[in-house]
Each structure stands twice: as structure tokens, then as C-alpha cells.
Amino acid sequence: MTAAPRRAALPQIDPTRCTGCGWCVAVCAPHVLSLHADGGRKASALDDAAGCTGCALCA
To answer: Buried (b) or exposed (e) across 9-24, using 16+ Cβ within 10 A?
Structure first.
């Protein structure tokens, strides 16, 4: 019997720590992250959780 594959954790974006630099968006191979204006400042957002591979390059 084999264990069920474990889904990697989705990125948790802390808007108080996000500087809006865009690094996470640039390294996201499946292109599921983007930058959004949030009250006059940019912050990253996970647009497509189902498309996230859990590679953690954005972390």
C-alpha cells in the first residue's frame, strides 16, 4: 500500500510584509500569482489556487 500524494501548501501572502516587488510573480512558473493595487500600494495575490504546484519558489 502506498501513501496518498501530499499536496504542497499554498502560499500564504501576508499583506503587511509584502513589498510589492513582484519577485514571487516573476518566479511563478504556472503564473498563478499577480500584483494588485491595494489601497495605493501593490501587493501580491494568489489568483488561481488550483493551478499552484506548491513548488515554494515564491516563498
So the answer is: eebeeeeeebeeeeeb
On the 0-12 / 13-18 / 19+ scale of CB atoms within 10 A, 50 is exposed
**pLDDT for residue 1:** 59
Query: Closest Cα to residue 41, out of 9, 7, 10, 15?
Result: 15
- Please report, for residues 2, 37, 38, 42, the alpha-carbon distance to residue 55 in angstroms, rounded to integers and kept in the order given: 22, 25, 26, 23
The model's pLDDT over 12-45, given as tens digits with 9 standing for 90+, comes to 888 889 999 999 999 999 999 999 887 888 889 9
